[in-house]
TrEMBL record:
Signal peptide boundaries: none
Sequence ranges assigned to domain Ketopantoate reductase C-terminal in this UniProt record: 1-111
Pfam families: ApbA_C
Name listed for the protein in its UniProt record: Ketopantoate reductase C-terminal domain-containing protein
A single cellular component GO annotation: cytoplasm
SUPFAM superfamilies, sorted: 6-phosphogluconate dehydrogenase C-terminal domain-like
Highest taxon in the source lineage: Bacteria
High-level lineage: Bacteria, Bacillati, Actinomycetota, Actinomycetes, Kitasatosporales
Amino acid sequence: MTANPLTALTGRRADVMRDPDVERVARRIMREAVEVGRAAGAALTDAHVDRAVHWLQHVPEGSTTSMREDRLAGRPLEYDALTGAVVRAAEHHGIDVPANRFVLALLSAIEQEGRAA
C-alpha cells in the first residue's frame, strides 16, 4: 500500500523507498493505515511500520511493483484496492488520513488522464 503507489507516482523502481524524503512519506502513509487497522480491530503497532519500511528498503536491486509496471504499460492501476480501501475504512471509523487521501487523489488523476487520452 506504499511501494505500489509511490513507485507508480514517481516512475522509479523500489529503490525509491531508500530516499529519505520518500521514506518519511511512506511511514506517514503506513502510520495512518495502522491507525485505521487498529480502529477495525487489528493488532497493529508502530513496529509493523518499521519492519515494512526496512523490508522495502532491502528488496533486491532492480525490484519493481505491479502498479509501476501497469502505469508504464498504460494499464489500469489497482490503487482503489489499496489506497482507496484505507481511505474508505478511515471514513467509516471517522479517522483523518491526509497522506492517503493525497496519494489517492494523485493516482486518480493519473487514471483520469489515461481515460481522456
